[in-house]
Batch of 2 targets.
Target 1
Amino acid sequence: MHVRALTLPLSLAILAAPVLPFAIAQDAAPAHVKEQPPAPAPARPFHLAPRTRYTLPNGLTVNLLEYGTVPKVSITIEVAAGKVNEDPQHTNLSVLTAELTSEGTTSLTGEQIAQRSGDMGSTLSVSGGTYQSSFAMDVLSSNAADAVGLLADVIEHPAFPAKDLERHRADALRQRATALANPGFLGQQKFAQILYGDQAYGRLLATEEELKSYTLDDVRGFYKANFGAQRTTIYVVGHFDEKAVRTAIDKAFKAWDRGPAVAWADQHAAEGAHFAFIDQPGAAQSNVIYGIPVADVSSPDTTQLQVMNSLLGGSFGSRITANIREQKGYTYSPHSSLSQGYGTNIWAENAAITTASTGPAITEIQKEIKRLQDEPPSATEVQNIQRYEDGVFILRNSSRQGILSNLNFVDFHHLNDSYLTGYVDRINAVTPEQVQETAKKYLKVDGMTLVVVGDPAVVKPQLTSFSSQSN
């Protein structure tokens, strides 16, 4: 948690300061002495109200959780239909299908859907993902039942109007062109292709030919094969009348066909060292991704991995950030992360690095990994990271949408609510020795994948030692 200091305007600060004789002012502490920040506050436990969870006869799952006193409610409906359910030659057909559901139903036009959601003080948000298609609204509590009805109509009775297909196709083609002009995305795409190949995680972008080929029959076919009650989960979080919401859900969804069972293909990341370079002549900076598969969220090592990541590169005060940003000035915003996918997980450091410093920066990243493997961090350093993680977690759960997102995360990974309620205690139980051992166990420098997008004339000569290590 970051505490914002109170800063007076310069003129007021001068007036507020005590007037000291010049001789006394000379005895003040030298300007280069850095003031120590206050010690981190003790961790606060996280409390989660019990949720009501039940299943309709057709297999649809409902989750209700009372949260807060503001008379608003967040409703999200997740349908287990996404990129993992596509044919490999139909990349992002699931996204197009999800988007078109909001363009009209058998009883409402797209304009009427937008008008009704607006009358509730909300917008209907629809998105397609790797595993799920999401439908969401955030409304006043008095409109919760009506929002459930509107969401149900969109999900159960899409009309897929022909007039909107071309507009969404054009949008997708523009987004594709924009993405391919972004060197950061090019690096991410290549990194995903190396690790996951033709699997869903490896197919970030549809080809132009695919997007131009999709028809309404393709959209309707994907919907029919993948949407149904037993693939659907409803989350309602906020301050609401539970009886009224349950009645609305039963009325809106009880007649929906059971549909297909959940079917998700496993995603397996490639092992071993890999190297790829994408030419961008004249680039002033290189986009670098450097990472490796690690244990997924179901592993007992998941908490240690979280602390290790934040200490090494996943927080603003991390070691890699301090090294290549603060000390060396190689990059402005380096950051490491854990992808935490379903049954798979990747630790990766991302950075946009000045062209001339690309090789040295990657060397420093490796040095920081090896330093953590060679000796455990201090107890104070680990405690600071633990307090950071505690604060971020509490902040993420300080809103209806945050709670809802975490409930979906828990269900998606087949965990239980103790994952959330025990998170702070687990984070604070990690020891410096465990952080070291986790780095040694998972961050094998000779098994890393490195992708660089940059100026080949300047950068490639800096990378000969890295490219020679790859498969």
Note: The domain at 52-253 is CATH 3.30.830.10 (Cytochrome Bc1 Complex; Chain A, domain 1).
Target 2
Amino acid sequence: MTARGISRTRELLRRGELSAVEHTAAVLNAIREQDTLGAYVAVAGEEALRAAERADARIREFGADAWRNMPLLGVTVSVKDLLQTHDLPTARGSLLPNNRPRQDAPAVARLRAAGAVVVGKTTTSEYGWSASTVSRVTPPTRNPYDPHLTAGGSSGGAAAAVATGLCDGSLGTDGAGSIRIPAAFCGVVGYKPSYGRIPYFPNGADRLAHQGPIARTVADAALLGRALEGPHPNDPDSGLGSLDAPRTGQTLRIGWIEYEGTGDEVRRVTEQARMALAGQGHAVEELEVRCTRVYPALVAIHAASEAAGARPEDDEWADPGRLEVIRHGRTLKGADVIRAEEVRQNLRTTLRTVMDRYDILAMATVPIEPFAADDIGPAWAADPRDLQWLAWAPASYPFNMTGQPALSLPAGLTRSGLPVGLQLVGPVGADDLVVSLAERLESDLGTLPSPAGRILEPAGAPGNPRP
């Protein structure tokens, strides 16, 4: 299967060199026959082909104008299995009975209104609780560049699907890094817009979760994101991400952050990206960050929300790791949560001050390389009872606490052939600036080659020792 991406697929459709039905049928067949990494949990059938037929009819009728009000016409997309879809079950990575909603989530409805063909639901950890895609429902989603390793999470299925050409783009969610971490591990682009820019319903009480695209290129991610933006009556927070005036300019002030514990190969690859930024004329300055109180605050806010939403049957059926989070949340007092919220407010204030000095922050998306596919983190964070399940990703969760836009793009490969992501972060509302810089940087760094050929014929079966 060829990893075309959104822009290339649109071009072929516009030229008449490909029909939406042909493309959709090929993608559906590839998902059924070639999804060796566990990217999907449900595959659309006749409904997707009917949507493709409608796309072809519109293209025949309107020609090049067919995309004027439907920018994703004929493009295949997948939807993370946390989001409601009227035509496919929404299991949310849980053993509890599947839920088949009567209507789409707002963002999914906007995908369809833009002409996209939804081809399936991608794998997630239970309710997206972990930053690896491990659940009791399905085998773990594996890394496209090494199937013995994790794809990251919790949008790991989405990132693996995009990387291997099993859709043109995907819609993911990000409550503490769940778009950007798998994008970095799988060598694709993951974009978390400003909080509220894309409506999210139903959303959690912790107000951490964003929705956003995963795509092959920055331009594809931006196109997908624009189709989803704007207020929605079911999400009172939607539209908040557009309050701040965006900044413009070709020469930017960039604060470069390097977190303690960054691996040597991650540092080597991201240093090349740093040099590329400087080579474009930007003023790149090292910035020291200390966020020792942020992770405990994130844990408290998230655990309290999980405990509040838990049902009695969760004690029997929940993923053991998520159950540890729920149990921790039950031990918290109201004062604990208020203190955590004070940390969140202080972080917002601090980063607003930082963003007065810098237009963009840049850093490795994840400071470590992917770990084993069956684990929820590196060895020191793999026991959920320690509540360190996301402590290994310090560049991700702070920007969920603040609601800032953040985008991960491929920076290159390690010497062992694993992708490394670079993250760009802007002020709230400055999404266009983040995307613009990412596109310029991508033009220098390039996109990674598709790993599809390596995946479909892996050197050894997943789970076996490496040769």
Note: The longest strand covers residues 406-413.
